[in-house]
Amino acid sequence: MLFCPKCGHILTLKDEKKKKLVCLACGYSTKEKKEVKLKEKVEKARKIEVVDQKMSTLPKITIDCPKCGHKEAYYWTMQTRAADEAETRFFECVKCGHRWREYK
Ligand SMILES: [Zn+2]
Ligand SMILES: [Zn+2]
CATH says 54-101 is which class? Predict the structure, then answer.
């Protein structure tokens, strides 16, 4: 049961379909109820894992993998310490992905 906010009289349902309530005492009427549709666009931002494709472009070298014994690995060089020192070679096993560096 709803009451008129103006005069406190009992509100009468006038329009069944629109659910409109009117006050017979003062003429107050409620506004048509609008269905609030919450359009939730749940667009989950797919976190596309950046696949490291750099490895496939690296040159291969014939070397024994210390982990699985595979004889082929990618290799790249990196300046690790002082500039005057020789570059350190790094390897990644083609088969198991094990990474290791060349110890001199
Ligand atoms: Zn009223
Ligand atoms: Zn391996």
Answer: mainly beta
Residue 83 or 95, more confident: 95
- 85 a catalytic residue: yes
- Domain-wise residue ranges, the chain: 1-33, 54-101
Q: How far is the CA of 23 from the centre of ligand 2 (A)?
A: 84
Taking the CA of 91 as reference, the closest ligand is 2
Return the beta strands (E) in the chain as ranges. Answer: 11-15, 20-23, 60-62, 72-78, 88-93, 99-101
Cβ atoms of 31 and 42 closer than 8 Å = no
pTM here? 0.43
pLDDT of residue 92: 94
> 6 CA distance to ligand 1 centroid (A)?
5
Q: Is the pLDDT of residue 49 over 70?
A: no
For residue 11, the CA-to-ligand 1 centroid distance in Å is 7
